[in-house]
Amino acid sequence: MRLGVLFSGGKDSTYAAWLAKKMGYSIECLIAIYSDNKESYMFHTPGIELVEEQAFLMNIPLVRQETKGLKEEELKDLESAIKKAIKKHAIDGIVTGAVASVYQASRIQNICNRLHIECFNPLWQKNQIELLEELIKNKFEAILSGVFAYPFDAKWVGRKIDSKFIEKIKELQTKYKINPAGEGGEFESLVVSCPLFKKKLDVKISDVRGEGNAWRAIFE
What we know:
By secondary structure, the protein is of the alpha/beta class. The protein contains 6 helices and 9 strands.
């Protein structure tokens, strides 16, 4: 089956792409949505400008779509992007990195139903601590590109997702009931190295901007 990947450059979409390829599917393209709305309900925004470089490192074509990021209206732009991928790359379905968001998963499934293509969610309902552990086991290196909830602060931005991170996030899960993989919007991530990349992504954080418990990386 020929698949396109809904791709943000974060840990979930990148890991889902790797799993799909490992299962024998043909990854024909990446589909990235560039949202003007930093508070988008659907789409990852911190570091989205780096997906072009990630696509290059994966040697996979990128279908890029702009959106103003208005709630529900942004779904029309997603559907347009998927239509472009169907026309240009003859995909039979899409891969998503959805783990627990019914809001996102249901809307993507509805689009796929209308377009008569498959929707493949390899991470759906996966235990979030196990997901983080699998990333490390399978040589995925990811950093936090933004944090958006208590008790996170600016110091968390740029932090690597490693065994120490997992231990700390377990503590925060117990104490504050956060989603350890950020599925409640607590944080976003950026993959800088993984088995799909031909080399490590060369990226540096030039600044961290925000206030309170909402901070995002500004990349060079």
